[in-house]
Amino acid sequence: MSTVPVGGSTGLDHESSEAVTLAARWLATTPPDQHPRPIVPELRRRFGLNPVEACQALREANLIKARAT
Q: Does an H or E element contain 25, and which?
């Protein structure tokens, strides 16, 4: 019999996805000229993300900005 992993059947870590969402909102609402460079290490430091999550935050921020136009 299989068991459902901690976090449910999605396999998602909701704490990390919340951090990704917060990072994406920050990126989308902060003017690009105010983003520290390079941005991925900054997202990792500021929001505690791993490299993949930092890239997810960038992708989500771009979607947020695209929906706003």
A: helix 14-29
Cβ proximity of 20 and 52 under 8 Å? no
Q: What is the dihedral of CA 11, 58, 49, 38, to 10 degrees?
A: 160
pLDDT at 2 over 80: no
pLDDT digits (tens, 9 = 90+) for 13-32: 667 799 999 999 999 999 99
* Distance, CA of 65 to CA of 17 (rounded, Å): 19
Please list, in sequence order, all residues whose beta carbon lies within 8 angstroms of the beta carbon of residue 64, skipping any fewer than 6 positions away.
24, 25, 28
Residue 43 tokens read as: 């997202």
